[in-house]
Design brief:
Elements: E1 2-6, E2 9-11, E3 17-24, E4 27-38, E5 45-51, E6 56-58, E7 66-71, E8 76-81, E9 90-100, E10 105-109, E11 113-117
Parallel strand pairs: 2-11
Antiparallel strand pairs: 1-3, 3-8, 4-5, 4-9, 5-6, 7-8, 9-10, 9-11
Amino acid sequence: VQLQACGGGLVQPGGSLRLSCTASGRFGSINVMGWYRQAPGKQRELVAALTSGGSTNYADSVKGRFTISRDNAKNTVYLQMNSLEPEDTAVYYCNADGYDHLWKPFRSWGQGTLVTVSS
C-alpha cells in the first residue's frame, strides 16, 4: 500500500492549509488513517487519526484548529489546518493501518510534506 501526500507549504501565522493523502495499491481494508508530524529535533507525534467508523483522535495542541476527514470511496484522508501557529512547523506524514489483499496487517507511511508557518 502506497500513500501519496500533498498540500504542504509556507503560510503565515493564523493562516490555513489543507493536506491530503491518497492510498493506492492492493488492500483489503484500511482501518485507520491519520497524520503525524515531526519538527526539527523532536520526535514524531500523532496529530490526528480517523477510523473507518468515524472515530477521531486529536493531539491536544491542535484540538479546535485542525480537522481530519476521510473520503472512503477515494481512499483519501484530509487534514484541514486553521489558525496555524509557528509551533505547527514540521514535516507531516500520513499513515494508514489496515489489511492487505491477503488480509495481512500493514502499516504504511507517506513521504512527508513540509509545513512552514512563518511571517
